[in-house]
Specification:
The structure is a single chain. It is built from 12 helices and 15 strands. It has 347 residues and is of the alpha/beta class. The protein folds into 2 domains: 214 residues, Rossmann fold (3-Layer(aba) Sandwich), CATH 3.40.50.300; 74 residues. A 6-stranded mixed beta sheet has the order 6-7-8-3-9-10, sandwiched between helices. Helix 6 links the parallel strand 7 and strand 8. About 8% of the residues have low confidence. Bound molecules: adenosine-5'-triphosphate (ATP). The site of adenosine-5'-triphosphate has 10 residues, from helix 1. Adenosine-5'-triphosphate binds next to helix 1.
């Protein structure tokens, strides 16, 4: 199975949201779809499933073009499901009834919904009415409904919303398991670190296009990753080519930029002494790519505004763009935006 999007353009009136988008996804694949709010992730899903009119372009599944005819759209809707919005749940129905409903529409030959309930650890509440559910319980129900539908192509918009860490892990694991059943799954999410746990490839939407994508299997170049404020950058110079210096003072230095291990260790030690935040070694993750793409790279040139090196707090705030009010939350913002990935080696 393959899903191909060809030259897709979508506008709302004069507002062109997506322009000439092209990609092909093969089965057994999870794509992480990343972009800031309002970039067009939901629009892309809605267009592929033909919930909204397509200005230009084609949706092709397994070589067949699905046009905007009743017959084609019906056939497409048998192949694709879209993660239900919690607002679509019926308060007076039970979770089991919702799961059965999705099973009956898309996958009636499946008799056993209990195995889905067990798989998602929902036995304790699934026979109660939805109106008694918390946010996270509803979210797990929406996911269970997708599993019951069992379509070849699944669009998951913000599936982790409201889930606690244990359930984020559970849903991430089940996503990987169902992928192996020959599915094409696209997950739009702002939980960037979590996307690295299960996605095969990450698409970043920007400037109305799939601006950049990277395949996590071939993304193997390792970096020393840490934090250093602009006024302390000089201590690390000279830095190898391809060093990234990102917003939140995140620095990523390619390991292959050093000839000897002892040079690498020296940089790790130096980074540790320059900041009290964790230093790690690993590949660039979605979080780092996100900062690079949407917030840009900062200059590695040493700050020469204070020749004596005695930089004040005020100077530091000016350089990095934080206001005095924000400075107290700065460290937590860093952690939120670029936490150390599970696969990284920590120091
Ligand atoms: N029905 C609509 N009519 C007009 N404009 C719309 C409509 N739906 C979305 N838009 C616009 O299209 C753009 C993309 O919106 P979309 O909902 O696809 O973004 P998104 O990336 O999914 O955002 P989020 O992360 O907030 O869910 C936005 O500028 C939005 O205002």
């Amino acid at each position: 199975m393959s899903l191909q999007v060809k030259d897709l353009t979508i506008s709302y009136g004069s507002n062109v949201v997506l322009k000439d988008i092209n990609f092909t996804i093969q089965d057994n694949t999870i794509i992480g779809l990343v972009a800031p709010n309002g970039t067009g992730k939901t629009t892309l899903f809605n267009a592929i499933i033909r919930f909204i009119p397509i200005n230009k372009g084609q949706i092709i599944v397994d070589g067949k073009v699905y046009k905007n005819t009743t017959r084609d759209v019906r056939a497409l809707h048998k192949l694709v499901t879209f993660f239900p919005d919690q607002a679509e749940l019926y308060e007076d129905f039970t979770g089991v009834e919702h799961i059965q409903m999705y099973r009956d529409i898309w996958n009636p030959e499946e008799k056993d919904v209990q195995k889905i309930i067990d798989r998602l650890n929902m036995d304790g509440y699934v026979r109660d009415k939805v109106k008694t559910y918390s946010l996270g319980m509803r979210q797990r129900l929406c996911f269970a409904m997708m599993i019951a539908a069992n379509t070849k192509i699944m669009f998951m918009d913000e599936i982790m919303n409201g889930l606690d860490p244990v359930n984020v892990e559970l849903v991430s694991r089940v996503l990987q398991e169902i992928k192996e059943e020959g599915k094409i799954i696209i997950v739009a999410s702002h939980l960037l670190g979590n996307l690295d746990d299960y996605s095969d490839e990450i698409y970043f939407l920007n400037n109305k296009d799939v601006y950049f994508s990277y395949d996590r299997k071939t993304n193997t170049r390792e970096f020393i990753k840490g934090y250093v404020s602009k006024d302390k950058l000089e201590a690390l110079q000279p830095l190898p080519a391809d060093t990234l210096y990102l917003e939140t003072d995140r620095i990523c230095i390619p390991l292959d930029g050093f000839e000897h291990d002892y040079d690498r260790f020296e940089v790790v030690e130096l980074l540790r002494s320059l900041s009290d935040e964790e230093v790690s070694i690993g590949v660039l993750g979605t979080q780092e790519h996100y900062l690079r793409i949407y917030k840009g790279e900062q200059s590695l040139e040493p700050d020469t505004s204070d020749g004596e090196g005695g930089q004040t707090d005020e100077d530091d705030e000016t350089v990095t763009g934080y206001t005095a009010e924000e400075s107290g939350t700065r460290k937590s913002r860093r952690r939120e935006e670029t936490s150390v990935a599970d696969s990284d080696t920590r120091f």
